[in-house]
Amino acid sequence: MNIASGTARSRWGWSRLGLVLVVVLLVAAACGDDDSATTTTAATATTGATTTAPMAEGVAYKVGFVVSETGPGSGLGIPEANTARMLAAQWAEGVMGPDGVHHAVEVIIFDDESNPDVAGTLASRLINEDQVDVLVAGTLSGNALAMAPLAEEAEIAMISMASARSIVEAEGEARFWIFKTPQNNEHSAEWQRDYLVSQEISSVCYLFENGAYGQDTLNSAKGFFPPAGIDIVYEGSFERTDTDFPIMAEAQASGCEAVVVGSIPPGSSSVTQAVSDFMPGVPVIGGHGSCNGQYIQLAPEAVDGTVLPCGKLLFADTLPDDDPQKAVLLQYITDYEAFTGGESVSTFGGHAWDALMWAFEGLSSLDEGPDLTARRVAIRDFIESAITNWPGTGGVFNITTSDHLGLEYTGLGFVMVADDWFVNFPSSDW
What is d(CA 187, CA 165) in angstroms, rounded to the nearest whole number? Predict the structure, then answer.
């Protein structure tokens, strides 16, 4: 079955193969000396099939997964890690290749502690020691950028869950081995521009976290705001973990009409609180890096009324029934809430689902026989050629040789924070 081109229902149908696989989640320390990072491994063991003839059993496949489950990026990484464990359980029956050979599927989950150096060490371990077939890696843009060269050198497909365009592009060309599932920061900037124009706002302060992600959001805004007549009259950076913001004095003095924030929680929540304190009444426009519950929980009063572009996962139930993403989104929400005991979804868990499903469908396309090197090449080629009109949580993906994301800015919607959650706020209501 060509899962990539099938419907959402067909992509879930593999779970009815009638095979039994036991997934055991083990928690251990892992990094260069096995003491500096937390790991979770989905170990697998396969029994015989309940058919009249023995089922042909092939090599076990391995998926490496590097996530920021602790540290400043944990608000994004925790739902990603939960999603990985959920899918590991759903993949308990393994996968059947086109040739009828069954394969166990192992998911190896490492926590990079939101540290680029740890991320690089873990990626190297997964590639060289664990010999994974495919790498799903990078909650944070800086961490993904630390791992991408290692994947390129080893010639293994890496699917990132971070948003910076530079993860998948270098000097205007697609990185051959690297893909990603989150929308670009340019996509956020397009939505922000449209909203600012609709409100006749012509000057903004841009406050961004110090790092690859924050800088990418600022660069994206500079590409879209000035051509639309929106001047960035003040730029100020801060650390993601800051709670004190000296930059607010200069922002206030600039006289900007609105503040645009380029950060993820906790930074985006804290700086929005500072804007509320120092510049009351000035509207705040966020980015899609804040589309999770932590953004609201950390500063509920300050973020109430803020607007930002977010994935459709947050308002899936309001989509029309003919929306190609709706069935996927509602199924993910149902599965995630059941697996976590009722935790709310975030778009970041969705990015992990999209990435892991690409990996799984790539594994599903393999016949038995090729060695690890050939399997890595085949998975890369599958993602580039078969993820077409593919409805995921982040949009309808169309990967090409020149575009290793494959989304338009319409993969995002626009929301307002109200009643302690994200409420659909379409342009018709602006």
Answer: 10
